[in-house]
Design goal:
Chain B: GO terms for molecular function: ATP binding; ATP hydrolysis activity; ATPase-coupled transmembrane transporter activity. Chain B: One of its GO terms (cellular component) is ATP-binding cassette (ABC) transporter complex. Chain B: This is Cobalt ABC transporter ATP-binding protein. The complex is a heterodimer. By secondary structure, chain A is an all-alpha fold. Chain A has 3 domains: 197 residues, no CATH class; 65 residues, no CATH class; 55 residues. Chain A has 13 helices and 2 strands, in the order αααββαααααααααα. In chain A, strands 1-2 form a two-stranded antiparallel ribbon. In chain A, helix 2 packs parallel to helix 4, helix 8 runs antiparallel to helix 9 and helix 10 runs antiparallel to helix 12. The radius of gyration of chain A is 26 Å and the shape is globular. The two termini of chain A are 19 Å apart. The model of chain A has no long low-confidence stretch (mean pLDDT 84). Chain B is of the alpha/beta class. Chain B has 2 domains: 232 residues, P-loop containing nucleotide triphosphate hydrolases (Rossmann fold, 3-Layer(aba) Sandwich); 287 residues, 3-Layer(aba) Sandwich (Rossmann fold), CATH 3.40.50. In chain B, a hairpin with an 8-residue loop joins strand 1 and strand 2. In chain B, 35% of the residues lie in helices and 20% in strands. The radius of gyration of chain B is 24 Å and the shape is globular. The longest helix of chain B has 18 residues. The chains are: A mainly alpha, B alpha/beta.
Chain lengths: 349, 572
C-alpha cells in the first residue's frame, strides 16, 4: 500500500474533524480511525497511543483553562464559583477565577475534542505509514533532502538512548542523576556523541555512494534551471495575483503555469541523480480507494457543514443534547473503507 | 587489487605523519589482515582504501593508493562505492535506513542499479548471510552479531570487489564472531572478494588470513608476508602463537588444530596433575594462591604502590576490612516484554575475580546494572556490602561499588585530565589529589592538560578506572573492558586488576574475551537467557565449553591449562 494513500486518508479524516464540533460525530470519527488503525497497522511501536494521549492532554488543558480563565460564552447554569483574582483596570477583559458555567465548559469540551480528533488522525497516519516511507516516495531531485530528513528522524531514538546512558554514567560517578542541573550537565556529552555519530554516518554514506551524480548534457542542465526558476517566479506572481483584487484574471493561470514549470524542472533535475528505487510503493486500485474514502469523508462533511451548520455545530446556549445528524454520520462511515480494501498487515517477524 | 605505493598520511595540525612509507599489495581474492598495536594507523590505512582518507578526514596523502586500478586521488569515496565496501567499527553508525531489507538495498539504489537486479541481489544476500528471517526487522531491534552481518550485507549487495572491515568481531561474543568470520570466508572462497581487515583479537581471525600486513610501531614501514612468518616477529600475537614460540615450533602453528597436532610432546612434558585449576575445591576461595591469578610481579599490592604518590587523605597502606562484598539472589528483571534476568544471582567475596560470560543479550550488563542500582529488579534481593544499591543515593553508593561501563568515555566529562581528577575527588568526597595520584600510578607520563579524547582506548579505560577507584569501592565491576585494546594494554589492565584483587577488592568482569577470563578470573559464571547456567572454577567451566575455552586449553586438552603463562611456569 502506498504511504501517500494512508496520509491522504488520514488528512481527509482530519479535515472532516475540523468541520464539526458535534461530539457524537467526532466520537464516530475517532472510532472509525481507531478501527482502521487496529486492522491495518503496519508500523511497529505504533505512534497511535502516544497521539491519543496527546489529544487527551490537549482536551484536558482546554477544560482547565476554561475553568480558570472563564469563557466568553454567556451561561446561566453556574456549576461553581471560584474566588476571583482582582486585576487592575488595564487588564480589562481578562478574568481569573469567578463563575464556571456549564455552557462555558461544554463549549470548551466541544472545541478541545475537535482539536484532539485532528491530532488522533495525524497519529493514525503515523502508525499506518511511517513518515520515512512517505519521504521515500519523493521525486528523484528531492530524494537527497528526503534522506537527510529520514536520518534526522532516526537520530531521535539514538539521542534518547544516549541521554539514558550518560545519566547512568553520572550515577556511577556519584552525582545525582535527577533534577534540572543533572539534566543540563548531561546535555554536552550527549551532543558531542550525536555529533560524532553524524560524522561517522556521513563518512559511511559517502563511502556507500550517497550523492553520486550522473553526467547531464549542458542544455538539459540549463533547461532545468530555467524551468525551476521560472516556475517559482510564476508561483509567486500567481499567488500575488490571486490575493490582490485587481489580478483576478491572470492570477490562477499564472499560478498553474508556474506549478507546472516547477514540476517539470524537478522531473528534469531528477536526471542528474542516477539512483533507482528498490521495490517502490505502487499507487494501485486499493490506494486509490483508500485515498478516495478520505477525500469523500472530507468533502461530504464539509458540504454538510456548509448546508446545515446547526447540526454539525450544536449550540451550547441554551443547553441542548446534541443529536447525531444522519447523513454526515453516514459520510463519516465511508472512512471505514480502508479496513476492508487494504491488504492485511503481515505478521511482524 | 589494492595497491599502496609509498603512502604517507599526515593529518592537519599534526606534525608527525600517522603512517609512513606504507607499500604493499593485496592480490585479488585474498584475505589480508592488518595487525599492530593501538595507534599505529591501522584505521588510516583502511580509510585510505575507500578514499575516506584524505577526502573525508582531511590531511595530506603522499604516494598513491589504487583500488581495482582506480586512483583514490582522482576518485572520491562515492565514486569508489561500486568497488569498495567499507564497514566501520560501529555498525550502528553505518545504517542509513531503518529496516534490514531497505538497508541492503540502499547502496544499490545510490549506484542506480536496475530494480530487477536489486531485487535479486537482496534475496541472494539475505540467503548468503542467513538474514532471511530478519528481512522486515527494525535495525534497532537486532543483536550485535546480526547488526554486523547486516552491515556487511549492506556493502555486499553492490558486489564490491574489495571489502574493508575495521574490527568486525571486537564487540561480538565468540559464537557471533564465528558467524561473521564464516561469512567472510565464504565471500573470499566463493565470490573471490578481496578482504582487508583490521582486528585486535588475532586469536579469532589469524587462521583465516592469507596475508598479514603488520604495522609494528607508529611511523614504521609495514612488514608484509605469510601469517606464520609475520607472527614470528610481530609484537602482537595470539596465545596459540605464544605457545608456539614458547615450544619453539617452526613453522608457527596458527590454528588450534595445527598446534594440537604438534602438541603431543609438549603435553607429555607437562606434569599430568599439574592441571592446577582442578586441585582447588569450588566452594572455598583462598586468597590469591593459584596459578590462574598469581600475585602481581611487583610484589607490592595496589594501594601500597600508588599510595606513595598520594598526599594526605585516608590511610592508604592497609585495605579496609571487607565483609561479603555483594550478594544478589533470584533476580527478575523485565524490560517491556523482554525478560532480561530470570532468577540469576551472583555473590562476590573479597579478593575474588569473577568473569561473567555469555552471549550478547544474555543479561550480563543487566546483572551489573542491578549491582550498581541502575536497574531495579522486579523480584529478588541485591545487597552490596551493607546497602541496597537501587535505594542508595549515588554519592553514598560509589563508596561501595564502582562500575567502569562499556564505553569508558561516558564516565569522563571534563576537557583535561586534571579537571577530570579534581571532579572525581569532589564526587567521591576524597582528599584533593587522590585521583591524580592514582592516574600518575596507573598511567605514568600522561600530562595534566591532555584531553581525555586524545588518549588511546586503553589509556581512557585506565583513566575511567582511576576515576572509579577514587572512592575506593570494595567491589569493582567492569563491563567488556578489553574492547579495542591491544595485547599490551590488556596486559597492563591484567596487572592492575590482579593487584587490586590482592588488596581485597572483589572484581567482576563481564566479557566476551575468553583469553582475558582465562588469565584473570578464578571463577567463571556463565549466563544464558537471564539464568546462571554454570558457576565454578575457571578451568572446570571453560575447558569443556567449545566456544568459551581459551586457545591454550583447546590445544592442551584434556590437561586443564588455561594460559601460556601457566605452561611457561610449569616447564621451568
Amino acid at each position: 500500500m502506498h504511504p501517500g494513500a494512508w496520509w491522504a486518508w488520514a488528512l481527509g479524516m482530519g479535515t472532516a474533524a475540523t468541520r464539526t464540533t458535534n461530539p457524537l460525530l467526532l466520537g464516530l470519527l475517532l472510532a472509525v480511525s481507531a478501527y482502521v488503525v487496529a486492522t491495518c497497522r503496519t508500523v511497529a511501536g505504533s505512534a497511535y497511543p502516544a497521539f491519543v494521549r496527546l489529544g487527551l492532554t490537549v482536551l484536558l488543558i482546554r477544560l482547565v483553562f476554561a475553568t480558570l480563565l472563564g469563557s466568553a460564552i454567556p451561561g446561566t447554569h453556574v456549576l461553581l464559583t471560584l474566588p476571583e483574582v482582582p486585576l487592575p483596570h488595564w487588564a480589562q477583559g481578562i478574568r481569573i477565577g469567578g463563575e464556571v458555567t456549564a455552557e462555558g465548559l461544554l463549549f470548551a469540551f466541544y472545541d478541545g475534542l475537535r482539536l484532539a480528533a485532528l491530532l488522533v488522525c495525524v497519529g493514525a497516519a503515523n502508525s499506518l505509514a511511517a513518515p520515512s516511507r512517505l519521504l521515500k516516495s519523493l521525486p528523484g531531485a528531492l530524494y537527497e533532502a528526503g534522506v537527510a530528513v529520514v536520518v534526522a528522524l532516526t537520530f531521535a531514538p539514538h539521542l534518547i538512548a544516549d541521554v539514558r546512558r550518560v545519566r547512568a554514567a553520572r550515577r556511577l560517578r556519584g552525582r545525582p542523576d535527577r533534577g534540572l542541573r543533572g539534566l543540563a550537565q548531561v546535555g554536552l556529552p550527549v551532543l558531542e556523541g550525536a555529533l560524532e555519530r553524524s560524522v561517522a554516518l556521513a563518512a559511511a554514506m559517502d563511502a556507500r555512494g550517497y550523492g553520486r551524480t550522473a553526467d547531464v548534457p549542458a542544455p538539459v542542465r540549463r533547461t532545468t534551471a530555467a524551468l525551476t526558476l521560472g516556475g517559482l517566479l510564476g508561483v509567486c506572481a500567481g499567488t500575488y495575483g490571486l490575493l490582490t483584487a485587481a489580478g483576478g484574471t491572470y492570477g490562477l493561470p499564472l499560478l498553474l503555469a508556474g506549478v507546472a514549470a516547477a514540476l517539470a524542472g524537478l522531473r528534469l533535475g531528477g536526471r542528474r541523480s542516477p539512483r533507482t528505487r528498490y521495490r517502490p510503493d505502487r499507487f494501485g486500485v486499493r490506494a486509490w480507494l483508500v485515498t478516495g474514502s478520505g477525500v469523500a469523508v472530507a468533502a461530504l462533511v464539509s458540504w454538510a457543514a456548509a448546508s446545515d451548520p446547526s447540526a454539525l455545530s450544536p449550540g451550547v446556549v441554551p443547553l441542548v443534547a446534541p443529536a447525531l445528524p444522519l447523513w454526515p454520520a453516514a459520510a463519516v462511515l465511508l472512512g471505514l473503507i480502508p479496513a476492508f480494501v487494504a491488504p492485511a498487515p503481515k505478521e511482524p517477524s | 587489487m589494492i595497491r599502496f605505493e609509498d603512502v604517507s598520511v599526515t593529518y592537519d595540525g599534526v606534525a608527525e605523519p600517522a603512517v609512513r612509507h606504507v607499500d604493499f599489495e593485496v592480490p585479488e581474492g585474498e584475505l589480508a589482515l592488518l595487525v599492530g598495536p593501538s595507534g599505529v594507523g591501522k584505521s588510516t590505512v583502511l580509510g585510505a582504501v575507500s578514499g575516506l582518507v584524505p577526502h573525508f578526514t582531511g590531511g595530506t596523502l603522499r604516494g598513491r593508493v589504487t583500488v581495482a586500478g582506480r586512483d583514490t586521488r582522482t576518485h572520491r569515496p562515492r565514486e569508489l562505492a561500486d568497488v569498495v565496501g567499507t564497514v566501520g567499527q560501529d555498525p550502528l553508525a553505518h545504517f542509513v535506513t531503518d529496516t534490514v531489507e531497505d538497508e541492503l538495498a540502499y547502496g544499490m539504489e545510490s549506484l542506480g542499479l536496475a530494480p530487477a537486479v536489486m531485487r535479486r541481489r537482496v534475496e541472494e544476500t539475505l540467503d548468503l548471510l542467513g538474514l532471511a528471517d530478519l528481512r522486515g526487522r527494525q535495525i534497532g531491534t537486532l543483536s550485535g552479531g546480526q547488526r554486523q552481518r547486516v552491515a556487511i550485507g549492506s556493502v555486499l549487495t553492490p558486489h564490491p570487489r574489495v571489502l574493508v572491515l575495521d574490527e568486525p568481531t571486537s564487540a561480538l561474543d565468540p559464537a557471533a564472531a564465528e558467524e561473521v568470520l564464516a561469512v567472510l570466508q565464504r565471500l573470499v572462497h566463493d565470490l573471490g572478494t578481496t578482504v582487508l581487515m583490521a582486528e585486535h583479537r588475532l586469536e579469532r581471525v589469524i587462521q583465516y588470513a592469507d596475508r598479514v600486513v603488520l604495522l609494528p610501531e607508529p611511523g614504521a614501514a609495514p612488514v608484509v608476508g605469510a601469517p606464520a612468518e609475520v607472527m614470528a616477529v610481530s609484537p602482537v600475537y595470539p596465545p596459540v602463537v605464544a605457545l608456539g614460540r614458547l615450544a619453539a615450533w617452526t613453522p608457527l602453528p596458527l590454528t588450534v588444530r595445527d598446534a594440537r597436532r604438534r602438541a603431543a610432546p609438549l603435553r607429555d612434558r607437562l606434569p599430568t596433575e599439574g592441571a592446577r585449576g582442578t586441585a582447588r575445591p569450588a566452594t572455598t576461595h583462598p586468597p590469591e594462591t593459584t596459578a590462574a591469578s598469581p600475585r602481581p610481579r611487583s610484589g607490592r599490592t595496589f594501594w601500597s604502590r600508588v599510595s606513595r604518590r598520594a598526599d594526605g587523605g585516608r590511610s592508604h597502606g592497609s585495605p579496609r576490612p571487607f565483609g561479603a562484598l555483594a550478594d544478589a539472589r533470584d533476580l527478575q528483571v523485565r524490560r517491556g516484554r523482554v525478560t532480561a534476568l530470570r532468577g540469576a544471582g551472583l555473590d562476590v567475596s573479597p579478593g575474588e575475580i569473577v568473569a561473567l560470560m555469555g552471549r550478547n543479550g544474555a543479561g550480563k550488563s543487566t546483572l551489573l546494572g542491578a549491582l550498581t542500582g541502575l536497574v531495579r529488579p522486579q523480584a529478588g534481593s541485591v545487597t552490596v556490602g551493607p546497602v541496597v544499591p537501587a535505594a542508595t543515593p549515588p554519592r553514598e553508593l560509589v563508596r561501595h561499588v564502582g562500575l567502569v561501563p562499556q564505553e569508558p568515555r561516558d564516565l569522563l566529562y571534563a576537557d583535561t585530565v586534571a579537571a577530570e581528577c579534581a571532579a572525581a575527588d569532589h564526587d567521591a568526597g576524597a582528599a584533593p589529589g587522590t585521583c591524580r595520584a592514582l592516574v600518575a600510578g596507573l598511567l605514568p607520563g600522561v600530562s595534566d592538560d591532555t584531553h581525555p579524547r586524545d588518549l588511546s582506548e586503553g589509556q581512557r579505560l585506565v583513566l575511567a578506572l582511576a576515576v572509579v577507584l577514587t572512592a575506593r569501592p570494595p567491589l569493582l565491576l567492569l563491563d567488556e573492558p578489553t574492547r579495542g585494546l591491544d595485547y599490551a594494554a590488556k596486559a597492563r589492565l591484567v596487572d592492575i586488576l590482579r593487584a587490586l584483587a590482592a588488596d581485597g577488592h572483589g572484581i567482576v568482569l563481564a566479557t566476551h574475551d575468553v583469553e582475558l577470563a582465562a588469565e584473570l578470573a578464578r571463577r567463571v559464571v556463565l549466563l544464558a537467557d537471564g539464568e546462571v547456567i554454570a558457576d565454578g572454577p575457571t578451568a572446570e567451566v571453560v575447558v569443556s565449553s567449545p566456544s568459551f575455552a581459551p586457545q591454550v586449553a583447546k590445544i592442551l586438552a584434556p590437561g586443564q591449562w588455561l594460559t601460556v603463562a601457566q605452561v611457561r611456569e610449569a616447564l621451568r
